[in-house]
Design a protein that fits this description.
Chain lengths: ~700, ~170
């Protein structure tokens, strides 16, 4: 029997709408949802390789309970009852003695969080985390400091943009199908793409301007551009007068940061900086300075993101075609939003263990900062944490220094990993629960904000293979075992969907035709001179931030020049390939075949000094000498001499993943001593404060 | 007559390798054989900008295919109605003559069956009125499928637009 199912991809965190064809219970074909004009059937390599993931046996198949020491790789198969009883048997005494707050959970963010966050809330823990300290936290906090609300307040109208500026935002390799397409349309129409990075990524190959900057100098470049924009009066005065507070302060702050000064820091000629400022001003307001996404890189990344937002404001590029537009929700379309389970459960009274929102008032409390959980575990300050649940999250592979992390994690009484893939964290856990893949489960209805807000749905395409269970079922079972089952009365996803939709005027049947329900007939645009909704205390775009100033943090930070590595040492940069999702797909049969391992990009002149030729094996050693490994060198002119680069996620150490095992090297293992190094204002880890030694291998 | 052609608009190709994944999964290929492949050459500086050539290599479905001529059993054959070259798996003896003969390395070896296999433009999909998997799901729509005589138009139109801007 054949059927067609509308769903949402789960191969990466973009979560594209898909259509799945199933024949006799087997997935035969996955494509982008043809009813979504941005997808129209298109899909990335990872999206199609969902099929290979689904039918691969090298992923968790039944609950496992650890035997022997943590990370030793000795496991005992367990039934679901045994595994869930084991977990609740450990959690109960912890909660009784230390309170629910002694349990922490982390995930990878996104729109499907209501049920597991409700579980955490129901047991009384405020200690929810996501992956964002190694992702967009600096951008999030930069947005809050300028607009009073987070980075997702806005989306980008790439299609109508005339000049797009990207600071290492590698749009053609860190892929979003819809964005990649619309940026291609921008280029087709003759639009400009300025790409700034320490290396020529796949995006540089399509750029109309490529600036290879000295690593760690994005902030300097922005200051130089702002100086030129203000000096030569290149900004949108009407927009700035209406919406901006703090222009004068900005002007006096950037006075010493001339394009000539920026040139010395970045390596980009000052005439080019000035010419760029004039050129982009011609195209305003249809221009976008992308504020960055994965910006857990330097200790001043917050300020480089913040100045990018400031440049957008100077260009007046808000709520205008080709600029940044406010994402509209159901309320903006005159509709009621979805009901949430979290809304039915009282908020925990305890403060977050990581201090976010109270000790550190400039850090959003929502997902906290996971790197601050480790010192809290070790120091039991301000209270003990005894258990940790990693749900689809692999901090040992994404946060720096896995060995340092293990020292803290090993103090816990319980570590649980819930995932549909093996993860380095799962391998170190006490219990490993196989969660159903995105093809095997239904998820809660998602609200898609945008110019035309919508609801969309992930419907189960096939039955779980092996003994995997959907995550909603796992958390409901745990809640029942811990005596808080009263909040989890729904018997299945269909019942939950009905609860979500109650009062919205939308019914489940409305999703049948296309997989989504649009909440507006046409795009919603606000009057950009009258109706913009900034959530700052001043209701304006705050160049001088009341939030920062109240907390004794400068709105504009004095620039500090990044450290220059000495002979034979390099700053270690990392990034994405278009065929792998961070560290999740290295063992996927199809994706592994396309890219089985990573290599080390090294500047040709530097390589020559070290006697390294293209294709040689080289030894990379961490700055403290505790970790080293060999890898193939890719010698190229297209990387800055101060830096070496590898694609993230390789060097896997789980023997059950036979294809990915020990292939290439993992950047995270070289980031020794960096677990507690972070941007003090943005909060995210400073992963590129990592230096390694490189030499030709024997 | 060889009718079809897959035109790659290299200006739109971002080297995302999705065509390879679409192909492998649609054709349930084991690890090893690849019906199509993106070969990246470069990068090098072109007008002072880094540029890479990502060249898409499917089967070209030749009018006079080397592989068909070389096949001793008649397994490798041309479909009369549209000229698609395919392997009848029942007749293939795994001699690899086609792999030797093809100048472009198109026929592939299936280690699981010990037979030759190759890109047939997803002819089962064509027969249902659909396009090949690689074209259908290409992210930037840089792959175009259709009649060879029509496909030169895209390149000419782009060129005309470019020179008219001067």
């Amino acid at each position: 029997m054949k059927k067609s199912v509308f769903s949402i991809c789960g191969m990466c965190s973009v979560r594209c709408p898909i259509r799945v064809e199933v024949e006799d219970g087997i997935v035969k074909w996955i494509e982008g949802n043809p009813h979504d004009p941005g997808m129209a059937g298109r899909l990335c390599a990872k999206g199609s390789a969902g099929l290979a993931m689904e039918y691969d046996y090298e992923r968790p198949q039944q609950p496992l309970i650890r035997k022997g020491k943590r990370g030793g790789g000795e496991w005992e198969k367990a039934s679901w009852d045994e595994a869930l009883d084991y977990i609740s048997g450990k959690l109960k005494p912890i909660i009784d003695e230390f309170g629910g707050k002694a349990v922490a959970l982390s995930d990878r963010g996104g729109p499907f969080r209501d049920i597991h966050r409700s579980f955490l809330r129901a047991i009384g823990s405020p200690n929810y985390y996501n992956h964002d300290c190694t992702c967009a936290r600096n951008v999030q906090h930069a947005a809050i400091s300028v607009f009073g609300s987070g980075r997702k307040t806005f989306n980008y109208d790439f299609k109508n943009c005339k000049h797009l500026v990207l600071y290492g935002r590698n749009v053609f390799e860190s892929l979003r199908v819809k964005a990649a397409n619309t940026i291609m349309e921008l280029l087709d129409r003759g639009g400009k793409l300025t790409y700034i990075d320490v290396r020529a990524s796949g995006t540089a190959m399509k750029a109309t301007r490529f600036w290879m900057v000295r690593p760690g100098t994005d902030y300097a470049l922005d200051l130089g551009i702002i100086h030129a924009v203000l000096r030569d009066k290149l900004y949108d005065a009407e927009f700035v007068n209406q919406w901006v507070v703090g222009l004068k302060e900005l002007e006096s702050f950037v006075a010493p940061y001339t394009p000539e000064w920026a040139s010395k820091e970045t390596g980009i000629a000052s005439e080019e900086i000035v010419a760029f400022a004039h050129e982009i001003s011609q195209d305003k307001p249809a221009v976008i300075f992308h504020p960055g996404w994965m910006l857990a890189r330097y200790k001043d990344s917050f300020y480089s993101s913040r100045t990018s937002y400031i440049l957008n404001a100077l260009m007046g590029s808000f709520e205008t075609p080709g600029g940044l537009f406010f994402q509209k929700g159901p309320g903006d379309a005159g509709k009621k939003g979805l009901n949430t389970l979290m809304g039915t459960i009282p908020k925990p009274k305890d403060k977050r263990v990581d201090g976010c929102g109270w000790k550190y008032k400039h850090f959003e409390s929502g997902p906290g900062l996971l790197h601050l959980l480790y010192p809290a575990i070790l120091g039991e300050d301000p209270y003990p944490v005894k258990a940790y649940i990693a749900f689809r999250h692999d901090p040992l592979l994404s946060l720096p220094d896995p060995e340092a992390q293990k020292k803290a994690l090993d103090k816990l009484d319980l570590i649980v990993s819930i995932d549909s893939n093996y993860s380095e964290t799962g391998w170190f856990a006490d219990v490993l629960l196989p969660s159903a893949t995105y093809l095997e489960k239904s998820s809660i209805i998602r609200t898609g904000k945008g110019l035309k807000p919508q609801f969309d749905i992930r419907r189960q395409a096939i039955e779980p293979r092996n003994e995997a269970k959907p995550d909603w079922w796992i958390f409901k079972q745990l809640a029942e075992r811990l005596g808080v089952g009263e909040y989890f009365k729904f018997k299945d996803m269909e019942e939950f969907w009905k609860f979500q939709l109650e009062g919205t005027g939308v019914t489940l049947a409305d999703f049948d035709k296309k997989g989504f329900v649009s909440l507006a007939d046409k795009q919603i645009w606000w009057d950009r001179m009258k109706d913009l909704k900034f959530k700052t205390p001043s209701k304006k775009i705050e160049f001088v931030s009341s939030l920062l100033e109240e907390n004794g943090i400068p709105s504009f930070k004095t620039y500090e020049s990044p450290k220059k590595p000495s002979n034979g040492t390099f700053r270690l940069a990392f990034g994405r390939s278009p065929v792998h999702t961070h560290g999740q797909t290295q063992n996927n049969p199809v994706l592994h075949e396309i890219m089985p391992e990573n290599s080390l990009w090294i500047n040709a002149a530097e390589a020559a000094k070290l006697g390294i030729s293209n294709g040689d094996r080289v030894t990379v050693t961490s700055s403290d000498g505790s970790h080293s490994g060999t890898i193939q060198a890719s010698v190229t002119e297209f990387i800055h001499p101060e830096v070496v680069f590898m694609v993230h996620g390789f060097g896997r150490k789980i023997p059950w993943q036979t294809r990915g095992y020990n292939k290439g090297l993992g950047d995270y293992r070289f980031e020794t001593g960096l677990l507690d190094v972070f941007d003090p204002v943005g909060g995210a880890n400073a992963l590129m404060e990592c230096f390694v030694n490189v030499e030709k291998a024997d | 007559m060889s009718k079809y052609y897959i035109y790659q608009d290299v200006k739109r190709c971002i080297g995302c390798f999705s065509c390879e994944s679409h192909c492998k999964t649609k054709n349930s290929l084991p690890i090893g054989p690849r019906f199509c492949q993106i070969i990246s050459v470069g990068p090098k500086l072109v007008n002072n900008l880094p540029r890479i050539a990502n060249i898409f290599m499917p089967c070209f479905q030749c009018e006079n295919p080397w592989c068909v001529a070389a096949c001793p059993t008649g397994a490798m054959q041309k479909r009369p109605k549209d000229g698609i070259v395919f392997v009848d798996q029942a007749l293939c003896v795994g001699c690899k003559s086609c792999i030797t003969a093809c100048p472009w390395g198109t026929p592939q070896w299936n280690p699981e069956t010990g037979k030759a296999i190759k890109c047939d433009y997803c002819m089962d999909r064509l027969d249902q009125g659909l396009k090949p998997a690689c074209v259908t799901k290409c992210i930037t729509q840089c792959l175009h499928f259709g009649d060879a005589s029509e496909k030169t138009k895209t390149a000419r139109e782009r060129f005309a637009r470019a020179i008219s801007e001067l």
